[in-house]
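Lab channel / #folding
Pinned by the channel admin:
"Please post every new chain as: sequence first, then the C-alpha cells as a reply. Keep commentary short and put observations after the output so the thread stays searchable."

First post following the new format, from NK:
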Amino acid sequence: MTAPTDVFVDRHIGPRASDQQAMLERIGHTSLDSLMQAAVPESIRATSAPTLPAALGEQAALGTLKALASRNNPGVSMIGLGYHPTVTPAVIRRNVLEDPAWYTAYTPYQPEISQGRLEALLNYQTMVADLTGLTTANASLLDEGTAAAEAMTLVRRAARGKDLRPLVLDTRLLPQTLAVVRTRAEALGIELLDVDLGTDDVPADVAGAIVAYPAADGAVTDPSRAIEAVHAAGGLAVVVADPLALVLLRSPGSLGADVVVGSSQRFGVPMFYGGPHAGFMAVRDGLERHLPGRLVGVSVDKDGRPAYRLALQTREQHIRREKATSNICTAQVLLAVTASMYAVYHGAEGLRRIAQHVHTAATTFAAGLVAGGVEVLHETYFDTVVARVPGEADAVVGRARAEGIHLRRVDADHVAVSTSEVTTVPHLQAVWRAFGVAGSHQGPAADALPEALVRDDAILTHPVFAEHRSETQLLRYLRTLSDRDYALDRGMIPLGSCTMKLNATAEMEPISWPGFADLHPFVPAEDAAGMIELVETLESWLAAVTGYAAVSVQPNAGSQGELAGLLAIRAWHRSNGDERRDVCLIPSSAHGTNAASAVMAGMRVVIVKATEIGEVDLDDLRAVCAEHADDLAAIMVTYPSTHGVYEDGITELCDVVHAAGGQVYVDGANLNALLGHAEPGTFGGDVSHLNLHKTFCIPHGGGGPGVGPVAVAEHLVPFLPSHPLHPVAAKRQGIGAISAAPYGSAGILPIPFAYVSMMGAQGLTDATSVAVLSANYVAARLKDAFPVLYTGRSGLVAHECILDVRGITKETGVTVDDVAKRLVDYGFHAPTMSFPVAGTLMVEPTESEDLAELDRFCDAMLAIRAEIDQVAAGEWSEGDNPLVQAPHAARELLDWQHAYPVATGVFPTGSTQDKYFPPVGRIDQAYGDRNLTCSCPPIEAFA
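Reply from TO:
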C-alpha cells in the first residue's frame, strides 16, 4: 500500500517496455543501459544518480503544490508598479490558457498549419498599434523591462550603430524597468543620462530618450515636450506606456513618439507573481524592419488568397550573428493571444468601461483622502494615487494588510494605492480606514486626466473587435482558430532542438490556482512564502541534476539565460582584475543566439571551426586559445552538439579553455539528452542556461512562454542576477536585473516543479534514455531513404538526428521545403528545417511519443521518399506533383487542377477519417516581405 497507483513516469514516457525492446533490437542493442553506455562518452558519464526526493504520484504532487499555494497570501493587490489584478474571462481562461490546442503548439514557422494562432497574434498587433497610435507592432516581447531594453538597442540599430551619443532614461519609469535597461546598457557600453522628465528638460545632443507615460508614481504628464526635444537633437523618442491607460489617454504616436513599449498584463493575464506576460513594442513608419522578435504579416497562398505568416521571419541573429543587436528568438505568444482575446471579447466599448472604472475608483479614493485631510501628491493621474503620511507609511500599509489588501510603501512618508479592474467600494473603504479616514463612500470625483491628453480618436475599429460579444460567439471563434492549427493534441511535432514532449495536465493545472496566479511579485516575502519555497526548491533540484552550485530562475527565456550566464562570466573576470578578457569563442555550428548574446554581454566573438563530422575542431580551438591567451573570456558550446551528437572531446575542450584562462559556457538547449546520465557542471562547465520549455515540460505555447534559468559553479554564484525589489534582501545588489520580475516567469514554475516531483531521479534518467532510443530508432528506419548527416563515433545520435535532403534536391529538384509541406498532407508537423545545416531536416521524437506514432512518422517519410522517386523517374512533372503542390487545402477538392489523382494528393495515407486539412495552400513567403502588412486586413480581402 506504500506505492502510488498513479505512477506518472508511465504516463510521460510513450513506448511501453515491449516497444522499447523492439526498438532496441532495431538499432542493435539489448537494453537502455547498453545503448546509453555506447552513446554517452565514458569521460562525462555520471557515476551516481542526482539527489532528488522519491517520485510522487500525480495526486501527491498536486497535494504538495496545493499546500504551497495555501501558504501564499495574494489578498487584494493595490500595489501597482506595472502589475495589476485583472479578470481573465472564464471562456478565455478555459479555452486559451488551459487548452492544449493553444498551449502545446509550436512557433508558427510552418504558417500553413498555424493560421489560427497567427490570426490571434495579428489581432494582438492591431490592438497594440491602435492603442499606441503607431503603424506596426510586433507579436510580443518578454516583459516591459526587456521591451524597454530592446527599444534602447533599436535606437542604436536605427542609427546603423553610428550614433554613440547618450540616451536619456526617465527616472520616473518603473524601478524594474530602470534596472533591466541599466543592466543591458552597462554591458553594451551605452551611456545613460538619468533625468526626471516630469520636471527637467532633455539635455542637448542625445541619441534618444525613454519616457514614462504614466509615471511609476502615477502622475500623468504630457510627454510631447520631451519628444520634441529629442527630435530636435536628431534622436528617437521611446515612450513606455500602460495600454489600459491609453484607452483614455492620447496615444503616444499622436504625440510624436517613435517607439512605444509596455506590458499587456492587465488585459486579462494573471499577475503570476511576475510573469509570464507579453511585453509589446510598436514603431512608426520606417522602423518596422528594425523590430526585434517576431512580426506577423499578411501574404498570399499559391491561389492568391490572404494567408498569415511570420514576416521577416529569419531571425536576425541567424543572419547577422555577432553583428546582431538583439538575441530575442522567442515571444510570449500564449499570453499575447490571451490579451488579444480580452480585447476581442470586450471591444472598444468594454475597454473604455473597464478603464473608466479603474480611473473613477482612483479619483473617488483620492477625493476621500483629501476630504479626510490626507494630502495627495498629484493632480493628474490614471490609476495610482500617492498619499503623504509623514512617518505613518508602515502603519498604513500594515493596517491595510490586516484587511487583506496590499498597498505600496514608497518611503516612510508616502504610500501609493493603485486601483484596478477588480477594485470595489468595499476595497476603497478598507483602505480609507487604513489611512484613518472616515469609511463613507464619497461618490465619484472629477476626472484627473489632463484635459489636453484625453483621447478622442477611435480605437479597435476592425470588425474582429465587434463581432464576438457573447460567450457563445467567442467560444466558437476560439474553436475555429484552434481547429486551423496543428499542435501536440493532434499528433507528433518532431522538431529537432525544440523538444516538443508531453505537457501533462497534472503539471499544467496548478498555474491557474489563485494562490499562484493572483500573487503580485512585490508582496512582502511572508505573503509569498509558498511560492518562494517552490522557487528555491526547484532551483536546488535544477542544481542537483546539472552538477552546478546554484541556479537563478530569473531569466524568462533561453536567450535571457544566455545573457545572464555570460554577464556572470564577465563580472567574475572583472572581479579578478581581468577586464581585458572579453573574447567569447563560438563554434561555427552554434545556435545564432549564442553570438548575439555574447555581443550583448560586451564580448567580442571569435569563431571556432567545426570538423566534417560536426564536432568542434580541437586543433583550431587550441590555436585560437593560444592566440587569445591574454583576452579569452569564455567559450559557448552546446552539448550534445548542435548537430545532435555526443562529442567525445568535450572534456578536452573544457581543459583547453580553462588552461587559457577562459570559462566554459555549456548551452543547455540539449539537456534532454543528458539528464540523469551526465552533468555539465561536473564534466567541465562553469555556467549553463536551461530551457525549462524543452527538458522540463513548460509548454511552448505557440512560441512562448519559456523559462531559461542560469546555473553556475561555486565561483560564479555571487554573479547571478539580482533585482532591486527582490524578496530576499541579499539578492537586491549584484550584477543587475535580467528580467522585470525577481523570479522571472514564476507563474509557470509549478510545471517543472510538478514534473521533477513526479519523475524523480530514475524517471528523469529513463526519460533521457528513451528520448535517445527514439531518435536512434527513427534514424535507423530512415537512414537508407534520407542519409543521417552526423553520428557519434559509436554510430549513434543523441536525442535528435539530421536527415540530409541536399542530395535528393540536387538529383530531383525536390527541396526540404517540399518534404516539410508534404508531411502536412500526411498529418504531421514538419521537423526543423535547414537548421543547423541548410537543406536538412532535424528530427527530435522525444520520449513521450509512443511506438505507433514513431512508426506513423517513419512510414510517412518513407512514403514521401517513394513519391520523390516517382518525380525522379518522370512519372510526375517537376511543376505539378504532390510534393511541390503541398500542402493541399480542402478547397482544392472543389476544382481539382492537378494531373495526379485527388486521393494521391489529399489522402496519401489512404485514410479519410480525422483528416487534418490546412486552411490555406502553400504560402508565398517573398510576397509578404515585399508587401509588408502587419495588422488585420479588411474583411473584403477574404471575399
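NK: The radius of gyration is 28 Å.
TO: also worth noting, The chain has two domains: 107-470+889-943, 514-757.
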